[in-house]
């Protein structure tokens, strides 16, 4: 009887610990294409220099369709560093969508600039917008070679 209780408690504890781990998910495919079937945006204004690292320029990310609307960003790269992110499109169907975008997008942008990549955490309450932002930003950074 003791063994059954110990096994049950141990298994339950292990499952609980596994559920609390934060998964590291991919922001999208490495080739910059959107999984939603949306083709990537046209090439960026910056032209990558072959073999010399990331080019300076402005790179437009793929438009990513989310449950609440399309998210698309533009990444500005200088000296191989992400210097700015401009949101070109965001969910804005109604007031609630605009409210969520108004608090989530600046946070996502600040975090992306801090870590210099698209490997950022989602903003609580804006999961779909966050996922779209991350995927669009990653596609822009892939184009830049960052």
Automatic annotation (TrEMBL):
The keyword Thylakoid does not apply. GO terms for cellular component: membrane. It comes from the Bacteria. Gene3D superfamilies: 3.90.1010.20. InterPro entries: FMN-bd (IPR007329). GO terms for molecular function: FMN binding. Transmembrane segments: none annotated. Pfam families: FMN_bind (PF04205). Residues 27-64 are annotated as: Disordered. Residues 1-26 form the signal peptide. Keywords: Signal. Residues 67-144 form the FMN-binding domain. This is FMN-binding protein. It comes from Streptomyces chattanoogensis.
